[in-house]
Amino acid sequence: xxxxxxxxxxxxxxxxxxxxxxxxxxxxxxxxxxxxxxxxxxxxxxxxxxxxxxxxxxxxxxxxxxxxxxxxxxxxxxxxxxxxxxxxxxxxxxxxxxxxxxxxxxxxxxxxxxxxxxxxxxxxxxxxxxxxxxxxxxxxxxxxxxxxxxxxxxx
Length: 155
What we know:
mainly beta, 5-stranded mixed sheet, 52% strand, globular
């Protein structure tokens, strides 16, 4: 297989499995993020670029949490490295069209944070745990219900 060289800081990336491939998103997310997908079947790397619809932009996000459900990659929070601000937004990347969309925040949504962990639970919810907010390490759990787009906090 062809080897690919990444020029990004190796400490700042995300990786996720989707169908018959895995994707590596390098550095930080911007309006025109370039990422790479490796297909296990044909053993090939493909480069792709994401973009926004309806001018729903966000920029320079890193240290975010990610999880994949169906053809959508969800990212939560992170930090804007230009403004040094912690974020609490939830964004979705369609892994077929590479379009970003901001999700509405309803319910008791998590506070701004970086370096949280997120995973899919029972194909209907995302579970978010912990992270840091610049003052302290967080030790809380939140559930995002994908079907009704509602956040809940677990006590």
